[in-house]
User: What shape does this take?
Amino acid sequence: MRLARFGNDRLGLVEGDAIRDVTAALDVLPSYRYPLPPGDMLVANLAAIRDRVCALAPDAVACPVSDVGLRSPLANPGKLVAAPLNYQKHLDEVRANADLHHNNAINTIDRTGLFLKATSSLAGAGDGIALDHLERRTDHEIELAIVIGTRAKRVSPADALSVVAGYCIGLDISLRGPEERSFRKSIDSYTILGPYLVTADEVGSPGDLDVCLAVNGEVRQRSNTKDLILGVPELVAYASSFYTLHPGDVILTGTPEGVGPIFPGDVIDATIQRVGTMRVDVRGA
Ligand code: MN
Assistant: This one.
């Protein structure tokens, strides 16, 4: 199933080029009192949501996906976890351009560990990227994004895929400079998730997915998730060996080689096989 959030907090079921408005399915969510349980409410109740979406879909109003503004498919993830330098060729290009990266924490992932991006940096494909600090270089990074489905702590790689709800395309927009990754990469709109949440059953094995990013029609990044140093099961296991993972938590798996600068006015086309394609506009903040 492909679930989108669009317009003014509408829930959509995407089928081919059409989107059906199934916002009424949100009525199955429990009504909570403060304090809210950890995690994203939609993902925590995904089974009930899916059943209701299926029941509503035949009579739901449809329109072309291209007619709606896509928001981040997750509204309230508890944390955005990200993997640094998780493709060998990207590690090589960063090492070859160490000056550009201010020699900033260039290490293999087993030494660096993971990092967190602020949830306030999250935006959807239709929101676009609002570039800030225009005097400095900012790069695009396309990454397969894992969406956690159930609470998990110290899950083994063998069991890791059982706690995954689905996948999105992630853009880990990165201001270059000397600061910590978590600070440079947490500017508003610097985490794009989209175009929708694709449930794990539709994606199948995440270990052999083509990944492609173009800027203004020119391909900059082209790779495959089989080149990940830590694959999806290993990353989920690694993250859960430090954090408790909650429904809706996101793990950005790292970007392949070919990162490059973006500027206001650029148009990014990002595609991951079996997950989707999204167009994201870049503008000034
Ligand atoms: Mn990244």
Observations:
- The mean pLDDT is 96.
- The first helix runs from residue 41 to 44.
- Residues 104 and 179 are 8 Å apart (CA to CA).
